[in-house]
Write a structure and sequence with these properties.
116 residues, mainly alpha, 0% strand, Flagellar protein FliT, bacterial flagellum biogenesis
């Protein structure tokens, strides 16, 4: 198989992995995505012109797959970002629950010595 065909197969596999919504193991999913992206990078470096007619056709298909892959990766990134923000809000509200007066500016315990 040519490097273009290997790249195409890896891209299809990556898209299937990202489209799998019922995966509850996010860490495993991220590890799989990283592994497939590294494989794709290796195949990309192995691509050398001139390309055959079949490789050019695969290239046209890859352009569409790359757009789809970019959308899926953006959705996954936003999901992770949203979960991180939710976790930070929970952590902040938990801290406020344990110490509700921490964020209030207080002047308690301040003594001003004024001599006349």
């Amino acid at each position: 198989m040519s490097a273009v065909e290997d790249y195409y197969q890896t891209t299809v596999e990556l898209i299937k992995l990202l489209e799998n919504e019922q995966s509850n193991d996010r860490d495993g999913k991220i590890a799989g995505v990283e592994e497939l992206l590294e494989k794709r990078e290796g195949f990309m470096q192995g691509m050398k012109p001139p390309f055959s007619q079949e490789d050019q056709e695969r290239g046209k298909q890859l352009v569409e797959l790359e757009k789809k892959l970019a959308r899926l990766l953006a959705v996954e990134k936003e999901s992770i970002k949203r979960d991180i923000q939710t976790l930070q809000k929970k952590k902040q509200s938990q801290t406020k629950y344990h110490n509700p007066y921490d964020s209030l500016p207080t002047a308690d315990g301040v003594f001003y010595d004024k001599r006349n």
